[in-house]
Structure formats: C-alpha cells, structure tokens
Amino acid sequence: GKPVMIVIEFMENGALDAFLRKHDGQFTVIQLVGMLRGIAAGMRYLADMGYVHRDLAARNILVNSNLVCKVSDFGLS
C-alpha cells in the first residue's frame, strides 16, 4: 500500500511535562491559564467531533514558542 504521513505543526517547546519541569515555577498565572485554555479548546474540539482521547496527560500535550498548548498522541500506531 501507499505510505501514510501525518504532518503537524512544529511545537518548539516539546511535551508539556518536560517543559514544566525545565521551567518550574517560572510562569505567571496568566500564562498558565492561557496554556490551559489551549488544552481545553483541543478537548472541546475532539468532543464536538465525537472523539475521546483516552490518554490525556502532560506528556501528550505539545507547547509552541508562544506557550500555546495543543493535544497530541491519538494512539494511531
């Protein structure tokens, strides 16, 4: 068969769990709330589309250079 590729946005800061450990305590409340809003928006979109993530964890959230968080790892392997 034909190879399948998934192309996603580059998230400079990697996984949220490692990012939080690296920058422990260096975030303002406003920054943290913004990050949470990105996660909530992603989960809302999935729910609206009828999907359930089933493994939402900091290791499955990616962070870009603007501290925008996006849900990843949908178990497609």
Automatic annotation (TrEMBL):
Presence of the UniProt keyword Transferase in the record: yes
Main location: membrane
Annotated SMART domains: TyrKc
InterPro entries tied to this protein: Ephrin_rcpt_TKs, Kinase-like_dom_sf, Prot_kinase_dom, Ser-Thr/Tyr_kinase_cat_dom, Tyr_kinase_AS, Tyr_kinase_cat_dom
Biological processes annotated in GO: axon guidance
GO molecular-function terms, A-Z: ATP binding; transmembrane-ephrin receptor activity
PROSITE patterns xrefs: PROTEIN_KINASE_DOM, PROTEIN_KINASE_TYR
Residue span(s) of domain Protein kinase: 1-77
One annotated Gene Ontology cellular component of this protein: plasma membrane
Membrane topology: Single-pass membrane protein
UniProt subcellular location: Membrane
Keywords assigned: ATP-binding, Kinase, Membrane, Nucleotide-binding, Receptor, Transferase
Pfam families in the cross-refs: PK_Tyr_Ser-Thr
Record protein name field: EPH receptor A7
